[in-house]
Amino acid sequence: xxxxxxxxxxxxxxxxxxxxxxxxxxxxxxxxxxxxxxxxxxxxxxxxxxxxxxxxxxxxxxxxxxxxxxxxxxxxxxxxxxxxxxxxxxxxxxxxxxxxxxxxxxxxxxxxxxxxxxxxxxxxxxxxxxxxxxxxxxxxxxxxxxxxxxxxxxxxxxxxxxxxxxxxxxxxxxxxxxxxxxxxxxxxxxxxxxxxxxxxxxxxxxxxxxxxxxxxx
Length: 217
Hints:
Blueprint: H1 6-12, H2 18-29, E1 36-43, E2 49-61, E3 67-76, H3 78-100, E4 104-108, E5 115-118, H4 120-124, H5 130-133, H6 147-160, E6 162-170, E7 176-188, E8 191-200, H7 202-216
Antiparallel strand pairs: 1-2, 2-3, 4-5, 4-8, 6-7, 7-8
C-alpha cells in the first residue's frame, strides 16, 4: 500500500464526480457519517475511465480537529456498473414498448383490486387521468360484474392462473365500452398479482351487430 495525497486523487478522478465526493467527505469530516463511501470514475493508466467503489475513514486528526490521514480502499466495480447500465437501458426500452401498447395493461393487487402499475392506454380508454385511475379498484369501473363476482373471479385466478372474458367498462363520463379482458396470475416479489390486458372491442361488437341485422333482412 502506498500513501497518496488529495491532489493525486483529484488528478485521476472524474470532474463530474467531485461534487458528490466532496459532499460525502465533508459529512465524514464533520462526524455526520462514520465513513466515506462513494462510487466514482477514475482515470485508468491506459486512458479510459473505470468505476471505483471508494471507501475511507479518517484515522488521524490534528490538534484543531482537522483530518490528517485517511485509510481506505479503491475497488474496481466497472463490470457491475456496466451490467447496471445495460439493465437500465433494457428496462427503459421495455417501458417504452409498454407505454406504446394500444391496449390497456394493468398490474393488479388481488387484495385491494387496485392497479399497481399501468400503461397510458389503461386510463386513457376510460377518460381518467393517471392519478385518478391509480385510485380506482376494478368494481369502480366494471359495469357488468358485481363486486362479489369480481371477488369470485379473483379466487379463480389465484387457483387456475388464467382467465379470458368480455365485460363492460364505465368511462369517467358515464358511457360504456365493451372490453375483452385477458388476466393472468404473476408473481411479484413473491406475492401473487394479476396482469390484465384490456382491449376495447366496442367498435367490433357494433359492426358484428350491424352485420347480424343485415343478415336478418
